[in-house]
Amino acid sequence: MTTFLYDGSFDGLLTAVFEVFEYRYKDVEIVSKGRFHQENIFAEIHEVITQSDKAERVLNKLEQNIEKSGIHELLKVYLSEDTELEQLILSAIRQSVQHPDKNILQNYADPDILKISKICKSVSRERHRMTAFVRFEKMQDGVFFAKIDPDFDVLPLIRKHFKDRYQDQKWMIYDLRRNYGILYDLENCEFFYPEEKLDLHKYQQKFHDEEQNYQMLWQRYFTKTNIVERKNLKLHVQHVPKRYWKYLTEKW
Q1: Is the pLDDT confidence value at 81 over 80?
Q2: pLDDT interval class at 246 (50, 70, 90)
Q3: What is the DSSP code string of 211-248?
Q4: The whole model's pTM is what?
Q5: For 117, how many CA atoms within 13 A lie in the half-sphere containing its CB?
Q6: Between the CA atoms of 17, 22, 25 and 26, what dihedral angle is there, to the nearest 10 degrees?
């Protein structure tokens, strides 16, 4: 078996897929360099250099075979960070080439396609929850800041939602687990990648006075309106899972 090593980017993965077809490899695995552990010193290694033109050619072919909606589903698989994401995407692309006249992503009899479907549902569910449960806090510089820690890398999937919804204020959303975020400055909405992880203590010291007062009032309101006799924790957790409570001011 030949191992294709790529840089972990989506373009890098598509470049690797292109070269699998280009060199007609059959028995192959694609692994990001960050997750690679060489156990067999005699294994054949193929280093992939990311090339946007090769990635673009794969995208164009995919758009012909599975349309933009299909590419979006494969992107969700990539963002899921599943340990088998590369092999699943390679399998789907191979099937799309073999059966260009069929919607291969609906062939649930195939185990790889079935797993892709399950992953996409999980990622979509996480995306929906992030759009519902994210809470912004006003900082001293007037920027509204939100911190998240999703199971999957859904920031690219929620960017448009927040850009369309909050066009009249500056805001940032930061992924605590993956150490990157989105910044909107009233004109541009770009990803940013800080060199160091967020220091939560320093972060809280930068709250705007209005934000601190707001949080105290909101917590007091939530306590006063909570009717103990009508408490249904099971139903509450079903709609707002505990792992999302850290995004809600009323749960602190």
Answers
A1: yes
A2: low
A3: HHHHHHHHHHHHHHH--GGG--HHHHHHHS-GGGGGG-
A4: 0.83
A5: 12
A6: 70
